[in-house]
Amino acid sequence: MSTTNIRRLENQDNDDVKETLRVLLQKRPTPIPTPASAARRPSDCPDFAAFLVRHGIDSISLNPDGVIDVLERVAEVEKEDTAVAV
Question: Partners of 38 in the beta sheet?
Fold first, then answer.
């Protein structure tokens, strides 16, 4: 596998990577302890954190410099989900 292919697979903005994550999150056995994502990406990209929340992740480790932006984005997603459910 080339370095280019590896970089593509480690890029969480890549649609193929997101689809793989979505499928894995849907197929995880239940009940299980809530999975957590402890990586730099959710801190750097509030939209990626929102993607994780939309797919059932409710515990995300963040770096201090990303907390406010991520909390605001996650609150938007949770508000959208609540509005859809009502």
Answer: 61
Q: What are 16-65's pLDDT values in tens digits?
A: 888 888 887 777 766 555 555 556 788 888 998 898 888 888 788 888 89
Distance CA 44, CA 29 (A): 29
Q: Is the pLDDT of residue 83 over 90?
A: no
For residue 57, give its domain range. Answer: 3-85
Report how many domains make up the chain. 1
Question: Are the beta carbons of 44 and 60 closer than 8 angstroms?
Answer: no
Ranges assigned E (strand) in 1-86: 36-38, 59-61
Query: Residue 21's beta-bridge partner residues?
Result: none
Q: In the numeric block, which tokens belong to residue 41?
A: 């990406």
